[in-house]
Amino acid sequence: MPVLPSRFAAVILHFAPLFCHRSWRHAEVLLIGAILAPGTRTVASLLRICGLMRERHFVNYHRVLNRAAWSARLASRLLLQLLIETFAPNGPVVLGLDDTIERRRGKRIAAKGIYRDPVRSSHGHFVKASGLRWLSVMLLVPIPWAERIWALPFLTALAPSERHNREHGRRHKKLTEWGRQVVLQARRWLPGRDLVLVADSSFAALDFLAALVGHGVVCITRLRLDAALYDPAPPRLPGTVGRPRTKGKRLPNLSQVLIDAGTVWQHVLVPGWYGGGERAVELCSGTAVWRHAGLPVVPIRWVLVRDPLGRFDPQALLCTDPNQDPHQVLRWFVQRWQLETTFQETRAHLGVESQRQWSDLAIARTTP
Question: What is the Cα–Cα distance from 69 to 71, expressed in whole angstroms?
C-alpha cells in the first residue's frame, strides 16, 4: 500500500466510513490509482500505477465496483460537503446542471441509447452517438490559484435510454425529471443555503422550473425569443366567481423587443465571457409571467443580450427570481461554459470513456 502525505490521506479518509474495513483497503488503492494514473482508468491500469501489477487477487478490486455494498450517493454528499467547506463557505451556492454522452458500445451495456452527440454536432450538422447519457450537477466556484471559475462535479446520475426502460418494464423519465431529482437532492443536502442553478435551454421547461422554485432554488436558463410572456394577473375583485386568473395582458415577444427602436439598452462589461476575457455587451431586462396552457405559471425576470459588434446572435435568458439584478443574472449564466470545459477535460485527462466495466452496478459507479 503506498504511503501518502498526511494532508492527502486526510482528504481520502473522509470516505472510509462508506466501506467495511476489507473493502476500504481495496477502494483506497483504486481511488489513489485513479488520481495518479495517466490515460485510461481501467482497474488494471490503476493497479499498475500503484505497483500491484502482479497482484494475484486482483478480482477483489473489481468487486469494489460490481459487488461491494457501499452508497455512491453518500459519497457524493461527503464530496459536496468538502467542496462547500473549502470553496464556498459563505454566500449563495451556484450549481451547474448539464448532460453528456459517454460513448460506449457492446451488447452488455444495457442502458445505452442513440443520442445527438453534443461534441461533434453543430447547428447545421447532426451527429448521432451510441452510449450512456449522464446528468451531472457541478459546483461553480472561483479557484484563487487558477484565477478562473471551475465546475466541480459532485453528483452524476445515469439517465437510461427509453428502449432500456421499455425492455425492463419501467416508466421512462425525461431529462428534466432526472434534473429535478438531482437538484432537489442537492437542495436537501444544503438546507439553509441560497441555491442558484445555471442550466442550458434543455431545462427551460415550466414544470421543471416551477418544481425547483417551490423548494427555494433560483433557476437561470435560456429563453426562447417567441416565449409567451404576460403581465401578472390583476387583483381579484370582490364577488368574482370562477377560477382565478393566472395571467394579465400579453406582452410583446422578445424578438419584437429586440428590433424595437424604443428599447433602452444598457452597456455592461462581463468578466470571464465563456472562458475568455472581459466582453462588452448590451442588455435590457424586464419582469413577466411565463405561461403555457396546462403547465404551471412561473414569474420570471427576462434578460435580452446582444453584441454591439455583432459577433454572436442575440439571446434571451430567464431568472426565476424577478427581483434579481440582470447584470448578476448574466454573470452567473456565462459560468455555464465551465461545465463544457469540465466534460472535455474529463475525457482528455481523467480517462472517462476508457472504462471496461460491463455490469450495471459497476457502470453506475465507475463514471461518477
Answer: 7
Query: What is the pLDDT, as a whole number, of residue 95?
Result: 98
| The pLDDT value given to residue 194 | 96
Nearest to residue 195, comparing CAs of 179, 208, 213? 213
Q: Is 252 exposed, middle or buried (CB count within 10 Å of its CB: 0-12, 13-18, 19+)?
A: exposed
3-class state of residue 227 by DSSP = coil
Give 15's DSSP letter: G
**Residue 297 burial by CB count (10 A; 0-12/13-18/19+): exposed, middle or buried?**
middle
Radius of gyration of the chain (CA): 23
Mean pLDDT score across all residues of the chain: 90
Query: What does the alpha-carbon distance between residue 241 and residue 239 come to, in Å, rounded to a whole number?
Result: 6
Region 174-203: mean pLDDT is 95
Q: Is the pLDDT of residue 120 over 80?
A: no
Contact between residue 137 and residue 217 where contact means Cβ atoms under 8 Å apart: no
Other C-beta atoms closer than 10 Å to the C-beta of 313 total: 10
DSSP β-ladder status, 128-143 and 93-103: antiparallel
pLDDT reported for residue 2? 63
Which alpha helices (H) appear in the chain, and where do they start and end? 6-12, 21-36, 43-49, 59-66, 72-87, 162-167, 175-189, 206-213, 254-259, 326-334, 337-349, 360-366
Predicted TM-score (pTM) of this structure: 0.91
pLDDT tens-digit profile of 334-359? 999 999 999 999 888 888 887 777 88
Distance CA 179, CA 158 (A): 11
**Beta bridge mates, 218:** 196
Sign of CA dihedral 102, 105, 111, 114: positive
Write down the pLDDT at residue 1.
59
The region of weakest confidence among 219-223, 234-238, 274-278 is 274-278
CA dihedral 103, 104, 110, 115 (to 10 degrees): 20
φ and ψ of 134, to 5 deg: -115, 140
Distance CA 159, CA 76 (A): 17
